[in-house]
Amino acid sequence: MPSLKFGRLTRVAQVRGVDVYVHWSIFAIGALILLRSARKPLTTVIGLAAYLSLLIIHESGHLIMARRRGYQAYSIAFYPIFGLARFERPDSRVDRALIAWGGVLAQAIVGIPLALYAALVGYTPFAALNAVLVILGGYSLCAAAFNLLPVRPLDGSVAWDLIPAYLEQKRQSSR
Question: How much is the average pLDDT of 140-156?
Answer without folding.
Answer: 94
